[in-house]
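User: Show me a protein chain along with its predicted structure.
Assistant: Here is one chain, sequence first, then structure tokens.
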Amino acid sequence: MQNKKISFMTQAALIAAVYVVLTLMVAQVNLASGAIQFRISEALCVLPFFTPAAVPGVIIGCFLSNILIGSALPDIIFGTLATAIGAYFSYKLRNNRFLVTIPPVVANALIIPFVLTYAYKIPGGIPFQMLTVGAGEVIACVVLGSILITALIPVRRYIFGENAYDKSGEKSFSL
């Protein structure tokens, strides 16, 4: 039992760290926030397909990233909430490798435009920002996330251990 807890915490911490590093890289070219954003780190929101540890991992990673890139407080709170909702529902849809990519897109496209409008006063209107944020999330989560899933399936047991997704979709522990 202790090994499973340590494995869970280690996986969550590593996923959080990778999320932070990827976000900080993209922030260097001003794509981590704003009306047009492309956080490649959001591709990690598909990792609940393999492990429930990805849920707290991406939540913590998003929270820390938002603090480190100097986001406004509403963005730290609601941006993290959007990622949390996306990761949680990705976990709930983990038995379908395509559907697992959708919740982060929907959560971010619905929540982040309000943050951009009210916290940052970014013009363009909420419908336009839903389009731009949604497009960035589609590229990150659906396109890159699907590529990530495909790349990790052959090595899933080496990376995520014996509890990683298999064809039956069964896990020996749950979130």
